[in-house]
Write a structure and sequence with these properties.
heterodimer, A: alpha+beta, Peroxisomal Thiolase, Chain A, domain 1, 10-stranded mixed beta sheet, two-stranded antiparallel ribbon, 14 helices, 14 strands, B: alpha/beta, Rossmann fold, 7-stranded parallel beta sheet, globular, binds nicotinamide-adenine-dinucleotide
């Protein structure tokens, strides 16, 4: 096998993230991902080029979009000779596609590639319910018209109710927010701490927009020029007014202000070998170092649905002989403020680290001033599969600005999974 | 498309001959005459089979000339001007639609005798008047070719002969000696050149980017991040790169310089096109309206030029082209801020020209008159109709007319044109 090569991150492009039902309400996943990819092509002058591959995906996907990413490539200005495939790992999709492309680059299988993801909560697929689906299939295979009509006559109103996708775990019936609320209570994450994290996210994101940080990371789409969820004036007072939406008891702490809203958006990342970057005169922002994926048994195993990153990170650190403190930036996806805080608390908890993570001593605290320095999903919004690409491109640029150092990415995902990765400055 | 409105008493606008790739240089026979000058040989070399005036046919007879050229570079006495009169008075009426009258002279300031200067300067008044008399989309322009500049005349001659100069009328261009750079392919004179256009997401900037790309340049299109969606389309259509940057941002010169050095190792053509208007009468103009216009239209250009020069981003033989406006020359009611900024551009261009010349580079200003864009579409009907008509061609220009002028100045072979202001205004009566 070929020697491993370093995968370089050259940059990214996304469209501003919108609230569900907002300006992208009529845009499909394919529309949004094409816009993000075309913006990337324009930024880097990739028109007509054949890249090694494009890997992307969506969490909420229509069945007609079975070949979503390839269709996007065909509709973009890339060479139609660029192969593409879909990946779906819930909210981990965007980071997982980046890992795929980076690994292929490392192995010498491709020289360049694009990773990314897209999601629309506005144009989510609506399925017919299972009873109706069966009848429709029978009608389709019926031999004669009378047979078909007979089948149709058997339909009952209850069978015609559509099934909308729910943000619920199939095995527990609980929504992700309800799961997160359980974890928040277990770890005694206070409302104030959650609101503080949310305010910081908005303030950091607002400052980053203001200083032009996103000038070469975001391309406006359908008239939206900035992330729609962003509230530059968010404050503890304004957040304190919101009523809890998740959690059943009187001590419920999770509100719409410290949870991510349903969002629409798309993000892409350009990766290559150092050599390819040099040939194309594209500066390298960062390199991928390593990645790890973990899953937890949130059904019977007594672990929180969104706690898998707590397990993935120590494994990743051990393999790379690093401590949790060896980073200049931490990008911890803010699915819910409480998720970030519970994860950080878990890493500081000696008992948890010993009993659950099998560590001799806890990972310890992080320097909070290095956490999500340009805001994260609470302020940006969270179109599920698009978040990974957003974070990778943001962190790569942060590292390039700093000129040295390393960053940790941690993303929790539905199904009790977590995807984490390390980038280092070029 | 263009609105065709008939206004009583005003002549109808002729359809102008505009260049398309593959078009010949001129669309008919060319007549060349001279009073024994220095540029005749260049003219004959460029024009496939020129005709000379034949007395038998009454100075050209009944032919319909696509262009008539007169080399007056050797004229030193007022009496010599009689030859110009004799020749042009006979032939001028035989110009085809969208024909060209091009005069060549010696810069009056280069002549040692007062009468010689006077004679040469007389050409200026002559050509401007001929431009006003020309009909059916024909234009009249004067080229003052300094001694020794004959070798760098060709790109300018070709521009004025061709449909590329459709809306450039009544202009006086000076051509000074410069390092000759041969052009291999006149269909793609900008081959291997890297060009930046600011404000390229739409309007005149998008047309400039398109024209430079058509002529072979690799284009970098820049505009404010808010215009990123259309900027992406322009970049992807032209196979260039999109640079989202507000040129007034503190780090804009740095970001632009870095983009050009990283991606291209430097730049050959920089077109400062981004511009805004915030019209208000002087007494009602707010400091914000004043400052924003001066910042975008002038201050940003100065800062970017400084960075490009200091950091050696501009390559040898570079071309900087700054979009000014006839408002900056003639002034305009409600535009004290805009006209100040556009006049300031001319000052900057003239001050930088000698420095640029040291590196075989040039800097020039292009001053559009009334150009049919979203901006002019928004004007009240009467103002717009007057703006369109008060020029020798009785019509507004198109963004491509400005773009063609920029593309000519951008050519490696146009090194003889430096520190000048070329109006693209159909010889507007404003700012003449
Ligand atoms: N339209 C005319 O008739 C006319 C006449 C004379 C001169 N001009 C000049 O021609 C140029 C182009 O005019 P147009 O009619 O195409 O205007 P336009 O408004 O259609 O286009 C100008 C472009 O510049 C961009 N821009 C504005 N501020 C910017 C900034 N700070 N940073 C980066 N980009 C910025 C805008 O986003 C826009 O895309 C301007 O300089 C204008 O003053 C136009």
């Amino acid at each position: 096998m070929a020697d491993l090569r370093r995968a370089a991150i050259l940059g990214g492009n996304r469209i501003p993230f919108a609230r569900a039902g907002g300006p992208y309400a009529r845009a499909s996943n394919q529309d949004m991902l094409t816009a993000a990819l075309d913006g990337l092509i324009a930024r880097f002058g990739l028109q007509g080029q054949r890249l090694g591959e494009v890997a992307a995906g969506a969490v909420l996907k229509h069945s007609r979009d079975f070949n979503l990413t390839r269709e996007v490539v065909l509709g973009s200005r890339l060479s139609p000779w660029t192969p593409a495939y879909d990946v779906q790992q819930a909210c981990g999709t965007g980071l997982e596609t980046t890992i795929h492309v980076a690994n292929k680059i490392a192995l010498g299988q491709v020289e360049s590639g694009v990773s990314g993801g897209v999601d629309t909560a506005s144009d989510a697929p609506i399925a017919v319910n299972e009873d109706l689906r069966r009848v429709l299939l029978q009608i389709n295979s019926a031999k004669s018209m009378p047979q078909r009509l007979a089948l149709l006559r058997k339909l009952r109103p209850g069978q015609i109710v559509p099934e909308t996708p729910r943000n619920a775990e199939p095995r527990t019936g609980l929504s992700m927010g309800e799961h997160a609320a359980i974890t928040a209570r277990e770890w005694e994450i206070s409302r104030e701490a959650q609101d503080e994290l949310a305010v910081a996210s908005h303030q950091h994101l607002a400052a980053a927009w203001k200083r032009g940080f996103f000038d070469d990371l975001v391309t406006p789409y359908l008239g939206l020029q900035r992330d729609q969820t962003l509230r530059p004036d968010a404050s503890m007072e304004s957040l304190a007014k919101l009523r809890p939406v998740f959690g059943k008891n009187g001590d419920a702490t999770m509100t719409a202000g410290n949870s991510t809203p349903l969002s629409d958006g798309a993000a892409t990342v350009l990766l290559s070998t150092d050599e390819w970057a040099k040939q194309h005169r594209l500066p390298v922002l960062a390199h991928t170092v390593d990645a790890e994926t973990a899953a937890v048994d949130y059904v019977y195993g007594g672990e929180g649905l969104l706690m898998a990153p707590a397990y993935a990170v120590p494994r990743l650190l051990a393999r790379n002989k690093l401590t949790l403190q060896d980073f200049d930036f931490y990008e911890i996806h803010e699915a819910f403020a409480s998720t970030v805080l519970a994860t950080l608390k878990a890493w500081e908890d000696s008992r948890y680290c010993k009993e659950r993570l099998c560590l001799e001593k806890p990972l310890g605290p992080i320097d909070r001033s290095k956490l999500n320095v340009n805001g994260s999903s609470l302020a940006v919004g969270h179109p599920f599969a698009a978040t990974g690409g957003r974070i990778v491109a943001t962190l790569a640029k942060l590292l390039a600005e700093k000129g040295s150092g390393r960053g940790l990415i941690s993303i929790c995902a539905a199904g009790g999974q977590g995807v984490v990765a390390i980038l280092e400055a070029a | 498309m263009k609105l065709k409105v008939k206004v009583p008493g005003l002549p109808e606008a002729a359809r102008l001959r505009r260049y398309q790739p593959g078009h010949p240089l001129v669309d008919g026979p060319v007549l060349i005459a001279s009073a024994g000058g220095r540029v005749r040989d260049v003219l004959s070399a460029v024009i496939p089979s020129p005709s000379s005036p034949s007395p038998a046919a009454g100075e050209g007879g009944s032919s319909r000339w696509a262009a008539i050229l007169f080399d007056g570079t050797a004229m030193r006495a007022i009496a010599d001007l009689g030859k110009l009169h004799a020749f042009t008075s006979q032939t001028f009426r035989n110009l085809r639609p969208s024909g060209r009258l091009i005069l060549f002279g010696t810069p009056p300031e280069d002549c040692s005798e007062p009468e010689a200067s006077a004679t040469q300067r007389a050409l200026d008044g002559f050509i401007r008047s001929a431009g006003k008399e020309a009909r059916l989309g024909s234009t009249a322009n004067l080229m003052y070719v300094a001694e020794g500049a004959e070798t760098v005349l060709e790109s300018t001659l070709r521009f004025f002969l061709s449909g590329r100069s459709a809306y450039v009328d009544g202009q006086v261009i000076r051509i000074r000696p410069a390092k000759p750079v041969p052009t291999q392919d006149w269909e793609h004179p900008l081959k291997d050149r890297v060009a930046v256009v600011t404000g390229a997401a739409r309007g005149i900037g998008a047309a400039i980017a398109e024209t430079l790309a058509r002529d072979g340049a690799t284009v970098v299109v820049a505009d404010v991040p808010a215009q990123g969606a259309t900027l992406t389309e322009v970049a992807n259509r032209l196979g260039g790169t999109a640079l989202q940057v507000d040129i007034t941002a503190d780090d804009a010169p740095q970001r632009i310089a870095k983009h050009l050095v990283d991606r291209y190792g430097g730049v050959d053509v920089f077109v400062h096109n981004a511009g805004i208007t915030r019209d208000r009468s002087l007494v009602n103009m707010t400091p914000e309206q004043w400052t924003s216009v001066l910042n975008v239209n002038l201050q940003a250009q100065i800062r970017i030029n400084k960075a490009l020069v200091e950091q050696k981003v501009l390559r040898d033989n570079a071309r900087v082209i700054c979009i000014s406006s006839t408002s900056g020359i003639a002034g305009n009611r409600g535009q004290t801020n805009y006209a100040a900024s556009k006049a300031g551009i001319i000052g900057m261009v003239q001050a930088m020209a000698p420095l640029m010349a040291k590196r075989a580079a040039t800097i020039n200003a292009v001053a559009p008159g009334f150009i049919e864009t979203a901006m002019t579409k928004a004007m009240p009907f009467a103002t717009r109709e007057i703006g369109r008509r008060i020029n020798s061609l009785n019509q507004g220009g198109l963004p491509v007319d400005v773009a063609e002028t920029v593309a000519w100045l951008a050519q490696p072979g146009s090194g003889g044109v430096n520190g000048q202001v070329v109006r693209v205004c159909g010889q507007s009566i404003l700012g003449a």
